[in-house]
């Protein structure tokens, strides 16, 4: 049984204002409670970040509370998120940096970064066009592959929530609706006025193969992709444009 | 915000991306603080990050904060003295802008820094 609701809204999906209402505002409110539940790094992300040599520089796009910043103290991560409240929490990782920014308008020069991660972020964009734009935005920051040698290029790791998660408590499968509101029940001790409150976040649940297609529509190259614990992931690179 | 970070920041306005004057952003009205405990010195990490820096931009940013002692040429290789490396580390990652602004040389938009956190969200007309 799916606990999610259909996405009834007075604002059209596929717009920035839809995401402001049904994603950004919600995270801003639930930030302290959300952060308290997000502390364990996922193994594939942890291994990815540990694989870069000392002095490597990279981005965590949609870094939330910055839980991945603690993984490797020999690299530098510039984390960004739309939520000022989550960035306030992430800024306590003093070795790294936390910035308030939008994934579609990143404040970074092109082609300078060894790596990027974007974990559980792209599924909050409310149209395929905007999801592809977000992936393009991430790819543009990476050092591009030169001379067909993949080791010359930066790598990005992207995670999105999967539609296929029959065994999870959400219980979705390949026949479920892909665009959903997912409830966040804010516990009493985190809520204003000490009463439990429920907030709805918009998600696009990714179907098998869909992330790889979005990456390729964004002009990226998928080096590795797979499924881990209710999520699809892809490790991607980009080539010199032109 | 660290001086290191400023070396990896440019104006988020799309029409500024192709303009060479959108990098680096220029510091204005900054208050600084030092945080040696948050970033203990690591020679290995510094030698790794040095080749990744845009040195001229770093000298510009450092100068705007009142630090003018960085050499014209980027120090590279194992021959660089330990004292020089430690001073670069202090400037790069232990010196923080606590409050201030970063200004784009192309569109002149000013991005604020408060409590050490820079905000690069754009107003609607610049998206």
Automatic annotation (TrEMBL), chain A:
Keywords: Methyltransferase, Transferase. SUPFAM superfamilies: S-adenosyl-L-methionine-dependent methyltransferases. One of its GO terms (molecular function) is S-adenosylmethionine-dependent methyltransferase activity. One of its GO terms (cellular component) is cytoplasm. One of its GO terms (biological process) is tRNA methylation. Residues 59-144 form the Methyltransferase type domain. PANTHER family: ALKYLATED DNA REPAIR PROTEIN ALKB HOMOLOG 8. This is S-adenosyl-L-methionine-dependent methyltransferase. It comes from Terfezia boudieri ATCC MYA-4762. The lineage of its organism: Eukaryota, Fungi, Dikarya, Ascomycota, Pezizomycotina.
TrEMBL record, chain B:
InterPro entries: Trm112. One of its GO terms (molecular function) is protein heterodimerization activity. GO terms for biological process: rRNA (guanine-N7)-methylation; tRNA methylation. PANTHER family: MULTIFUNCTIONAL METHYLTRANSFERASE SUBUNIT TRM112-LIKE PROTEIN, UPF0315 PROTEIN-RELATED. This is Trm112p-domain-containing protein.
């Amino acid at each position: 049984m799916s606990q999610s609701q259909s996405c009834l809204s007075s604002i059209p999906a596929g717009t920035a204002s839809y995401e402001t209402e049904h994603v950004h505002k919600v995270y801003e409110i639930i930030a302290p409670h959300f952060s308290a539940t997000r502390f364990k790094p996922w193994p594939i992300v942890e291994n990815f970040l540990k694989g870069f040599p000392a002095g490597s520089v990279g981005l965590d796009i949609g870094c939330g509370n910055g839980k991945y910043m603690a993984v490797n103290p020999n690299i530098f991560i510039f984390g960004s998120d739309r939520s000022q409240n989550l960035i306030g929490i992430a800024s306590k990782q003093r070795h790294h940096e936390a910035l308030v920014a939008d994934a579609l308008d990143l404040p970074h020069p092109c082609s300078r970064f060894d790596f990027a991660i974007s974990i559980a972020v792209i599924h909050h964009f409310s149209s395929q066009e905007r999801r592809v734009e977000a992936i393009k935005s991430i790819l543009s920051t990476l050092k591009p592959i030169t001379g067909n040698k993949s080791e010359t290029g930066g790598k990005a790791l992207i995670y999105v929530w999967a539609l296929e998660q029959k065994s999870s408590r959400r219980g979705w499968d390949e026949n479920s609706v892909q665009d959903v509101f997912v409830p966040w029940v804010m516990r009493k001790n985190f809520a204003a006025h000490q009463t439990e409150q429920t907030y709805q976040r918009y998600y696009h649940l990714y179907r098998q193969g869909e992330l790889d297609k979005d990456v390729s529509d964004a002009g990226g190259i998928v080096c590795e992709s797979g499924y881990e614990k209710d999520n699809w992931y892809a490790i991607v690179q980009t080539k010199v444009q032109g | 915000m660290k001086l290191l970070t400023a070396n990896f920041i440019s104006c988020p306005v799309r029409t500024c991306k192709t303009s060479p004057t959108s990098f680096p952003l220029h510091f204005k009205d900054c208050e600084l603080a030092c945080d040696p405990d948050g970033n203990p010195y690591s020679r290995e990490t510094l030698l790794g990050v040095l080749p990744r820096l845009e040195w001229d931009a770093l000298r510009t940013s450092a100068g705007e904060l009142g630090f003018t002692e960085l050499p014209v040429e980027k120090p590279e290789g194992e021959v660089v003295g330990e004292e020089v490396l430690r001073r670069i580390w202090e400037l790069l990652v232990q010196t923080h802008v606590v409050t201030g602004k970063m200004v784009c040389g192309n569109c002149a938009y000013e991005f604020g820094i408060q409590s050490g956190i820079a905000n690069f969200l754009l107003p609607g007309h610049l998206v």
